[in-house]
Amino acid sequence: MASGFVLAALVGTPCGLALGASARVARFVEPLLSVFNTVSSAIWAIFAIIWFGISDATTVFVVFMTAMPLILTNVWQGAQNVDAQYVELARSFRMGRWQTLRKIYLPTILPWFFSGARLAFGFGWRVSLVAETLGSSDGIGYRLRQAGDLVQTSQVFAWTLLLVSLMLLLEGGLLKPLERWLFRWKKRA
After folding, report:
1. Closest by alpha carbon to 47, among 58, 34, 60, 31?
2. 54 and 48 in contact (C-beta within 8 Å)?
């Protein structure tokens, strides 16, 4: 799950920035992005099983294919919302591309990124469970399927409780504190 999510963030963020920077590229990629958003996670899981067999790569691929379009779309929307006056001001101060990206684009895009990342994180958990159930020989999804096949209700509840606890721990212990720390400069309304 973590590998697919990190890979989705590493690919989706620069691609979203590229779409925000070029309307021509965005017009070309937008229909493809619609296709990626339309394809079900279960279909990605079937493709992954065909291509990678029953392995961890199956789960990584399915999480990546589900999370990446969400992150890409949100970063793209954030890049489109950068105030043109700030970019013009940066040019008048002769700021380089990296400085403009760091001082103007990044603060504008971060809330959009976190919105997409939190969505992708939630979907990623559910999708990884499906992928592990269908095409893995290890993991919580595999253990849930195994317990279900053996009609071990207590095991199904235990694995489900572990999954929910892990998600809440990562969400509340990592993502929310990181988001609060990164946006500590923002005033509360």
Report:
1. 58
2. no
Structure tokens at 70: 């969400």
Alpha carbons within 13 angstroms on the beta-carbon side of residue 38 total 6
pTM of structure:
0.75
Least trusted range by pLDDT, from 42-51, 99-108, 138-147:
138-147
Q: Which tokens belong to 71?
A: 């992150």
C-alpha to C-alpha distance for 63 and 159, rounded to whole angstroms: 20
For residue 62, what are its two tokens?
């399915």
Q: In angstroms, how far is the first alpha carbon of the chain from the final one? A: 35
Task: Return the exposure string of 160-170: e unless at least 16 CB atoms fall within 10 Å of the residue's CB, then b.
Answer: eeebeeebeeb
Q: Identify the pLDDT of residue 18.
A: 85
Cα separations in angstroms, 17 against 26, 55, 155, 173 = 10, 32, 44, 28
